[in-house]
Amino acid sequence: MEAATAPVQYVAWLGSLVHTHQYGKLADLRRPPTADSPTHYEARAFAPTEEHRALYRQVGFLFARYHAGRVKPHYGYGNMGRAIRSIGYDGARGPANPGAERLMMRILPARQIPWRHLQHAIERIRAGETTPPSWAELITDLTHWTDRGRPTPQAWGDAFYGRGRTSSPTARTNGATK
After folding, report:
1. 93: helix, coil or strand?
2. HSE on the CB side for 157, CA within 13 Å?
3. 14 vs 18, 51, 75, 90, 126, CA distance in Å?
4. Spatial distance between the Cα atoms of 52 and 55, rounded to a whole number of angstroms
5. How far is residue 128's CA from residue 86's CA, in Å, rounded to a whole number?
6. Is residue 84 within 8 Å of 160, Cβ to Cβ?
7. CA distances (Å), 44 to each of 72, 86, 140, in order?
8. Per-residue pLDDT of the chain in tens (178 residues, 90 and over written 9)
9. CA distances from 116 to 3, 43, 112, 151 (A)
10. Residue ranges per domain, the chain?
11. Alpha helices in 22-79 (DSSP H)
C-alpha cells in the first residue's frame, strides 16, 4: 500500500465499520494492544511499513473510542490542535479553558507520541460532542511526531493557540481597494 494513500484508505475502512454497524470489530479495536484479534491484524495491515503498524492500531483505538455508540462515522476535520481548541464551553474554549490548555501542555512537549493524553483528548472531544481531528491527518501527523524540528507539535500548537481566523484567498489583507 502506498504511504500517501494508506491513511485515507484506513480511515475509509474504519468508517465502514461504523456505517455497517460492525460493533464487534469496533469493540475489538477498543481492547488493549495485548489482546490481539483478527481485527487488530486487519487494522495493522493498512500500515505502509512495519514500523507504522502499532501507530495504525492505536489510531484505530482512538477512532473506536470516539465512535463508541455512534451510528454514523465522523471523519473529522483539521489537526488535533484545532480539535482540542473546541474543548470547553461557551466563552471558555481552547486556550481560555484551563483543562484544554493543560491537556495541550501535556501533549506538545512530549518527545514520544503521548497516547494516553491523546486518548484523553478524544474522550473530551467526544463528551463535548465537538468535531474530532481528521483521522487521516492524525495518522500522517503522528508518523512525523519525532521528526527533526518537531513539525507536528508546532502545527498543533499553532492551531490551538492561533486566532483561528483565515482570510479567503481573494481577500485583500493590506487594506487596498480596487
Report:
1. strand
2. 13
3. 7, 20, 9, 31, 17
4. 5
5. 8
6. yes
7. 23, 30, 15
8. 566 799 999 999 999 999 999 999 999 999 877 767 889 889 889 999 999 999 999 999 999 999 998 999 999 999 999 999 999 988 899 999 999 999 999 999 999 999 999 999 999 999 999 999 999 999 999 999 999 999 999 999 999 999 754 433 333 344 444 4
9. 26, 20, 11, 20
10. 6-66, 80-148
11. 23-30, 38-44, 53-66
Q: Which burial class, exposed, middle or buried, applies to 70 when counting CB atoms under 10 A from its CB (0-12, 13-18, 19+)?
A: exposed
The C-alpha atoms of residue 102 and residue 159 are separated, in whole angstroms, by 15
Determine the 3-state secondary structure of 171 from DSSP.
coil
Per-residue pLDDT of 9-45, as tens digits, reads 999 999 999 999 999 999 999 987 776 788 988 988 9
Phi, psi of 88 (to 5 degrees): 130, -150
Block residue for cell numbers 484567498: 169
Q: Which residue has cell 495485548?
A: 34
CB 130 within 8 A of CB 87: yes
How far is CA 37 from each of CA 29, 34, 118, 156, 166, rounded to the nearest angstrom?
A: 9, 9, 23, 33, 44
* Rounded to 5°, angle at Cα 19 from 14 and 23: 75
